[in-house]
Amino acid sequence: MPHGRAGAPGQGVHAHELALLTEELDHAHGSAGFVRLSGEPWVGKTRLALRLARAAAHRGWAVACGRAARDGTGRPFHALVDALDDQLAAADPAVLERLGPARLRVLAQVFPALGGSVPHGSLPHDSVPHGPPEADVHAVARALRAVLEELAGRRGLLLVLDDAHRAGWEVAEFAEHLLRHPPDAPVLTVLVHRGSGPGAGRLASLAHPDGAVRHIPLRPLAREAAAALLPEGLAPLHRELVLRDAEGVPGLLRALSDGEPPDAAGVPHSSLELACGPSPLAPSAPALDLGALSPLARLAADAAAAAGDPFTVETVAHTAPLPLGLALRAVDELHSEGILVPDPRAGWSRFRRPAARALVHQAAGAAQRRAARERALAAPDAAEDTGGAVLALLETAGPPTAAQAALLESYARTTVFTQPARAERAARRAAERPGAPPGPHLLRCQALVLCGRPAQALTEYARLWPRREAAPPPATTERTDRTDRTDTAVWTEAAVWRARALRLLGARPQARRVLRAVSAGDRAAVPAAQAELAALLLESGRPARGAALGAARRAVRCAPQSDVAAYSHALALLAAAHAAQGAREAALEAAGEAGPLLSGLGAEEAAPVVEAWRWLGEAVADGDARRARQFFRHGFDLALHHGQGHLLGPFALGLARACLHSGEPAAAARHARFAAAEFDRLTAYDSAATARDLLEFTGRGPERNPENDFGIPLSTREREIAMLIGPGLTNKQIAARMNISIKTVETHLGRIFKKLGVRSRAEVVFRLSIPAAGFPPPDEECGPAARRPATVRSPAPGGRPPGSG
Fold first, then answer.
1. How confident is the model at residue 10 (pLDDT cuts 50, 70, 90)?
2. Cα 560 from chain centroid?
3. Residue 318 and residue 313: Cα distance in Å, rounded?
4. Lowest-confidence pick of 325-329, 441-445, 466-470, 531-535
5. What are the helix (H) ranges across 108-215?
6. 3-state SS assignment for residue 577
């Protein structure tokens, strides 16, 4: 499948670095040049060197490219032999004569092409060594400098030595000699090597007082450049996962984008799932290029991938299996190749990129993977690795024992926010035990909601809920039984997540009834219930905005300030509720308090309250679209990192609106398209219709920002209302679409008329060049939400709920 797009010459991946290299070509015409090109594996060093070689050949330069022996068993000066042996074999006899017998005698010890190329009588036959040569490195370096001068002539010579970190010490000595005694000819020497490891450290020590060595580090691509490499036709979610997992490394981009999406249902995997356990990637994903590794290092890489991050050398030795000494040598090679990096724990290592670990693990056969994982679990360092034991249980058949079910449930509860797809599988296995309590079943439903399968979760909730109604009430004596309290907390938490599933699918009345059924005492004890009620009321439109503010205030009061995540989430909801009522200063004050608290949380600490970033974005969207975009983007990235698919659509829709208000219709269309696809996956058809409305508007709307073009200081909310005038929406319809009051719409319209100096809606449309057909004719009450029933039913064979048309 082709990658990238056609562009102008000199443009493309690492275009800036290629420009620096061609600049060195120009400088080398005056004096010999020396460049180090470094970077991690698969970042594109070899491809960039080949592009430089093509550019040099196009300019008429002689080009010699060589690579160090990949198996580590090459003869001395292997990289230079690979680059120059053919050149010497085809050299004019006059060149050999100018080199002289003494130099040819030295070079014949290294270059096979010169074993019989010396002019007759100039070099005694018995002086040509047989068997492994023991060349004088300094003499070879001097002779090679003369060879480079002869091959360069006046046109110039580009010498590229790839994988130089793997070359022997004699190549580093040759490089030092060239720096001390530059060739008297236009020669540019480029050493391509890894950015870390012992060999790289030796090359990094190359220095010259005149700054003759230019170091060009090759770093991962920025998001825009990485996206340009992806093939056309990728599903929106697959595209985002590839960009996240590849982390800008071109080789990983190609491997991850080829083949089918990881999950046929489109459920995202979390970043942590790449680091350990079964690979969440598609089985059709191609293997990485590991040809640079020795067979021993490749065996150790497979063992390390089976063990999962982080691991010790002892675990690798036990998993491979290998003697400890060989395992140490193999792991050292993997570190020198930049594939592994030290873990913060002393004596432990991990893969530099989790996606590389998943791809290496995926490349092994199923039987090989299973056997390697069994050996990894039996390693001494894995004795306390409960996570590894759980991952092994996920692949075993048959119902688990009571102890295994408890282990699975504990693991699922620990990882439900950070790895919801894997937590769902663990909870499902725990629930397979005969007579399992409702805990693992309800935990599985929560994981289904989090990973973006709310319809399936509601089906399970409907099956489980009669068990709650049949359960005996808690004891009313002073000493309440511990089990009763636990059961109450479990069902209260389940009610919150059942309401979340209903809210995601647009069934807000049913969600409110579920939350209303939770007693007031339980809601006060569980701040998440009040927070969910506030979120539900915020999404319910203008009539509920006052109730949303009250619920948000109660959420702030009952959230303990010691629980920073819950407290900051409640503050973010309060900020959004104030903004919905038009209280901008109060909204900014609450957002200003919540933002630093949320930013101070680590990724795992913030996992239970990722949606708080959405409410911060909604709180500031009216007056600061760029700041809102930052909030939405951060929340989107965090949800994608944790695999919380239920939030990707709402965050993408917020991003689309913020981009549109910032005057970026192309970015708005991209995010709206992603939001529509995600809402379709969730079967949230009302929200999908809203995203498509926005997508249609971005496609037909103006390509400019009215404020920038006309110098009109309209606020973000005023511009949004002005754009809704064109399609012919009434004040009531605009209020319903934007979840504000009719009086607020009238106030904004008055300000718009005054700022534009107009007296009618038609003049606003003409002045701002707003299209008159940006939206389809909406229903009277709530636009797309009123066109489909709010009741959630099982999907029909066609995929839509019955009665949705």
1. very low
2. 33
3. 9
4. 466-470
5. 137-152, 169-180, 198-204
6. helix
